Amino acid sequence: MTSAFVLQINISNGGIPKRPIAEAVVTPLGIHGDRHAHPEVHGGPKKALLLITSEGIEELKAAGFPVYNGALGENITSTGLDRRDLRIGQRVRVGEVELELTKVRAPCFTIQVYGANIGEAVYDQDVKSGDPSSPRWGLSGFYFRVIKPGIIHPGDRITLLT
After folding, report:
1. What b/e readout covers 80-118, taking b as 16+ CB neighbours within 10 angstroms?
2. pLDDT, tens digit, for every residue of 79-109?
3. Considering the entire predicted model, what is its pTM?
4. How crowded is residue 50: how many other Cβ atoms within 10 Å of its Cβ?
5. What is the bridge-based pairing of β-strands 91-94 and 97-104?
6. Per the CATH hierarchy, to which homologous superfamily does domain 4-160 belong?
7. Where are the domains positioned within the chain?
């Protein structure tokens, strides 16, 4: 992961899509101003931020899904980050913020607005069991908890710490 960056930062008033913002104040519960339509499922300290790679979004577009940055509800859309290299427990620095990867996101029914079978396209039994060799690994996104809060911007470097 030599040149990974924040491509876009996204928030919403609840649900999808999330819309881009120019700067984010990251707290232990996520980005200030971001809301969740179903807070009993999304958010909280272990799922404070959702990251999806722009490369994964491009894969889904090539498969015929009408997705775009922010469409799947991610807070951070990255570029240059290989989703296949990410593992539970790893820590990353995004700008001045430090994060820990807590889990792969299990897609919810709301993303079906982009296609009835998008859930199966981004998540399978191997991903569910934690197998990063699945070709779907990370397509649905990764949840992070916030270790060190701060401010992030598009263009901030993403650095693997552990």
Report:
1. ebebeebeeeebbbbbebbbbbbebbebeeebeebbeeb
2. 999 999 999 999 999 999 999 999 999 998 8
3. 0.95
4. 23
5. antiparallel
6. PK beta-barrel domain-like (2.40.33.20)
7. 4-160
- Pick from 132, 135, 82, 78: nearest CA to 103: 132
- Per-residue pLDDT, 39: 67
pLDDT in tens, 10-61: 999 988 999 999 999 999 999 999 987 776 677 789 999 999 999 999 999 9
